[in-house]
Amino acid sequence: MPRGRYSLHDPHDHTFLGEEHFHCATGPSGWRYVSQLTTPSGEHAGSVDLTLDELGRPIRLELHAANWQVRGAALNGVTWVRSDPTGEQAQEGNVAAHSFTGASPAFLVATSRLLRPALGDRATRVRLVAFSPPVLAPRTLDQSWALVNSETHTTDSGPLVVENYQVNDLETGEQHTVHIAGDVVLAAPGIELEDLESPPSTFA
Fold first, then answer.
1. SS3 string of the chain?
2. Mean pLDDT value across residues 86-90
3. d(CA 75, CA 80)
4. How confident is residue 29, by pLDDT bands cut at 50, 70 and 90?
5. pLDDT at position 35
6. 168 close to 177: Cβ distance less than 8 angstroms
7. What is the pLDDT of residue 112?
């Protein structure tokens, strides 16, 4: 069960936004990721709880940030409820999309598991619903993912396979690279892996 810490930064001006302390695990029915977010001063800022099925589909999502929370799942596309803590401002949403995304590294692992592009294949298009802190307002976006290369590194705990993806925002044309090993993001825009207590899990 990998357990560690990411540092989060503004991908444009590199301002430090805080940290995400996480643990995740693979299993016969899929993958689960749980994390707690902190501000630059160390105060609690929210949480992420994401469960995928064996095909990479989100069967349970729960996000908390500021005074908002989101619960969602893959249902008729993707369906969610966004509300304040009291539930008085609850709003339901549904979009014909493939999955969710957001600021957490968990969503990069989730999208790579959902698409599973093969090396040399054309980029795969995907429609996602993004929830960004602090208000977790939904936004639908289109991306394409391509597996650029795969590298094997020798470590004390055995071979580490790192997959490098090129991700394109199909609305803005912006491109960036995401480096993933198993179920851990090694690096991505605004995301740096600072600490990892055990090796990444490998998916069957």
1. CCEEEEEEECCCCCCEEEEEEEEEEEECCEEEEEEEEECCCCCEEEEEEEEECCCCCEEEEEEEECCEEEEEECCCCEEEEEECCCCCCCEEEEECCCEEEECCCHHHHHHHHHHCCCCCCCCEEEEEEEEECCCCEEEEEEEEEEEEEEEEEEECCEEEEEEEEEEEECCCCCEEEEEEECCEEEEECCEEEEEECCCCCCCC
2. 79
3. 9
4. confident
5. 98
6. no
7. 97
133 prior amide bond cis, ω within 30: no
Gyration radius of the chain's alpha carbons: 16
Spatial CA neighbour of 175 closest among 150, 147, 151, 145: 145
pLDDT score of 27 more than 90: no
Pairing verdict, β 158-169 and 175-181? antiparallel
CA neighbor of 78 nearest in space, from 65, 61, 64, 91? 61
Q: Which two tokens stand for residue 34?
A: 């749980």
C-alpha to C-alpha distance for 47 and 136, rounded to whole angstroms: 12
The β-bridge relationship of strands 58-65 and 78-83 is unpaired
